[in-house]
Amino acid sequence: MAFRKDFLWGGATAANQCEGGYDQGGRGLANVDLAPVGKDRIGVITGEQKMFDFDDDHFYPAKNAIDMYHRYKEDIALFGEMGFKTYRLSIAWSRIFPKGDETEPNEDGLKFYEDLFKECHKYNIEPLVTITHFDCPMHLVEKYGAWRSRELVGFYENLCQVIFNRYKGLVKYWLTFNEINMILHAPFMGAGLYFEPGENKEQVKYQAAHHELVASAIATKIAHEVDPENKVGCMLAAGAYYPYSCNPEDVWASRKNDRENYFFIDVQSRGEYPAYAIKELERNGIEIKMADGDAELLKNHTVDFISFSYYSSRVATTDPDLLEKTEGNIFASIKNPYLKASEWGWQIDPLGLRITLNDLYDRYQKPLFIVENGLGAVDTPDENGYVEDDYRINYLAEHLQAMKDAVELDGVDLLGYTTWGCIDLVSAGTGEMKKRYGFIYVDRDNDGNGSLKRSKKKSFDWYKKVITTNGEDLSND
C-alpha cells in the first residue's frame, strides 16, 4: 500500500471564500472582504487600487460567500459522509479580534470556531487550521499599514496565544500563513499591503514578509509550548519552474524563479535567510530591519512539516520573443507547449506534482502535506443539482497517481492530501462562483443569486471510494 494507514484525506476551504456572515457575531471588516468581482479585482488585490470600504458600484462576493457561517453543520456532515479524515479551514482573524489590536478577544467568534471544530470531531474529522488565510483586519491596514508595521507581529502573537489555548485538544494541525509567497504577487489580498505613490514596493513587501516570518516562528514556539502534540506547518504556492529549453540561460532563469518562492520556506524550515536571498536583497538595495532576537526566533522555531498548493507547473525563459503566457494561481507563466489547459487557462501537469513533491522533499527532508489541488471548471447541473464531472475526476485521479508514485517509488514522506474547494466556493483569483472546484455543488452564481442549496456531484462518491480504499482505487466507474 502506497499511503500510510493514518493518511489524512480531506478537503480545503478558506474563511473568506466560504463563510460569509461578514458583519455577524461581532466580526470586523477585513482586507479579503473588499476584493470585488470584475475588472477592478486585480488592481485591488495587488495593492495598486485603493478600496478600504464597500461602495455601491461593485459586488463583493466574500460578504456572504456560500453562507457556511450558518450552514457549517450541513457541510461538515457531507464531508463526514465522504469519509474525510481531515478538513482544512481557516480562522477569520477579524472574528476573533474585530479590529486586530484589542487585548480581549470576541467570545462570539471564539465560540463559532469551537463549535465548528467539535462538529468535525463528531465525524472523526481532524481539523487542519490555517491561522491566516490572507486575512488582515482593516483597522490594522488603516492604522498601521498592515504587515509593513512591526506591531502586527505582536497582534498576531496575541491571536495565537488565544487560539492555541482555547482550542487545545480540538486542533493539533496548524498552518501559520497561507501561500506566504503570495505577498509578492497579490500583496493587498495576501497581507493587506496598499502602496502609496512613490513607495519602494519591493522594500515594503520584503520587510512585511520578514514580519510574517518572525510571526510564524513565534506561532510555532507558542503552539509547541501550549501543547507538545501540536504540529505546525508553513504553506507555499508551489509548482516547479521548468526551463523552456536546455539553453543554460533558461535553466538559470527557472532556478531563480524557484528560489524566489522557496525563499520563504527556506527561512521557515531551515531557520535562517539563505545566502542567495541575502545577496539578491543586497543587489536590489532592499534592507531588512531585524529586531534583536529575530535571528534566534527563526533558528529555534522551525516548522514541523511543509504544506503547499499545487495546480500547475510553470515555465521560465530569457528569450524575449517567447511572450505567450498562460494563466495560473494569481501569477502567469510562459506557456508550456506540451500541456493542455483548464477553461481558465491553467495548464494541467500531473507529473509536475511528482516533480514538485520530490523537489520539496529533497530540499527540506521534512514531511510534506498537499493542502490544495484541484480543477476549476464550469459545472452544468441537472434539475436535481447533480453534475456529471468526469473531467474533475480524471484530473484528480491523474494527480493522485502522481502523488502515489512520489510516495511509493520515490520515498517522499507525505502526511495527507486535501483538495481545494471541496465544496464550491468563491474563487480567490477571479471572485467568481462559476469557477467551481467542489465535490458538492452550491446553487449560487457570480452575482450572488441562487438558493445556496447543496447537492452532490458525481465526484462526491468517487472521492468517497478513494478515501475508503486509502488511494488504492482511483478508477472512475
UniProtKB/TrEMBL annotation:
The active site is at 372 (nucleophile). The keyword Hydrolase applies. It comes from the Bacteria. Keywords: Glycosidase, Hydrolase. InterPro entries: GH_1_N_CS, Glyco_hydro_1, Glyco_hydro_1_AS. The keyword Hydrolase applies. Pfam families: Glyco_hydro_1. Transmembrane segments: none annotated. Belongs to the glycosyl hydrolase 1 family. PANTHER family: 6-PHOSPHO-BETA-GLUCOSIDASE, GLYCOSYL HYDROLASE. This is 6-phospho-beta-glucosidase. It comes from Enterococcus alishanensis.
